[in-house]
């Protein structure tokens, strides 16, 4: 365990300061994605049932009031279902950008060392370039791993929204 922590710390140090931001953003992203999955599996069914009960209490569903109430109930569920979805997408898009920022700052450091030392040693340049590309790799990997999870959350959202709309028919839809 101690070796893993040391290796991970070495990896973070090699990648530079931006890698810490990528790590923090990745942890935050996973926290929000897990929260969404938890919500869909545990909390949403209770809200869904409550909303359906409210819809059942509406007596005349074919008039303007009934349709307005249906739209309101579906809209409230939509807001609850889509909470943090844009945040997830923004974090996924931001991870590769932070990786590129780390690469650019790393390359600037490599060029500064070359300018100060005046050396064009290929080995030292390769080590610097290698260290500079670590943040790009980390940002890309974090984003690529999160994409399928985000796609699954999006599918869950769309499916639930369609199901609730189907489960709340107006009088004209029931005929």
Q: Would you write up a description of this structure?
A:
- With 175 residues, this protein is mostly helical.
- The protein has one domain.
- It is 89% helix and 0% strand.
- α2 packs antiparallel against α4.
- The termini are far apart.
- The model has no long low-confidence stretch (mean pLDDT 88).
- It is elongated.
Summarize the model shown.
The protein is mostly helical and 175 residues long.
Write the layout of secondary structure elements.
Layout: H1 2-15, H2 17-56, H3 64-82, H4 85-117, H5 122-167, H6 171-174
Helix pairs in contact: 2-3, 2-4, 2-5, 3-5, 4-5
Evaluate the radius of gyration: 25 Å
**Shape, principal axes of CA atoms:** elongated
Distance between the termini: 65 Å
> What is the string of SSEs from the N terminus onward?
HHHHHH
Q: Structural class, judged by helices and strands?
A: mainly alpha
> How many domains make up the coordinates?
1
Give the integer mean of the pLDDT values.
88
Beta-strand portion reads under 5%
The number of helices is 6
Largest sheet: none
Contiguous low-pLDDT stretches (5 residues minimum) are none
Number of beta-strand segments: 0
